Amino acid sequence: MELHMHSHHFMRRMPYWRAAVLAGIAAGGIFVVLEALLTVAMGGSAWAPLRMTAAIVMGHGVAAQAATFNTGIVLVGLAVHFALSVVFGLVLAAIMAPFNLDSSIGMTSLAGAVFGLAVYLIDFYGMTRLFPWFVEARGALSLVTHLVFGLVAADLYLQLEQRAAGTESKRG
Question: pLDDT tens across 38-63, in order?
Answer without folding.
Answer: 999 999 999 999 999 999 999 999 99
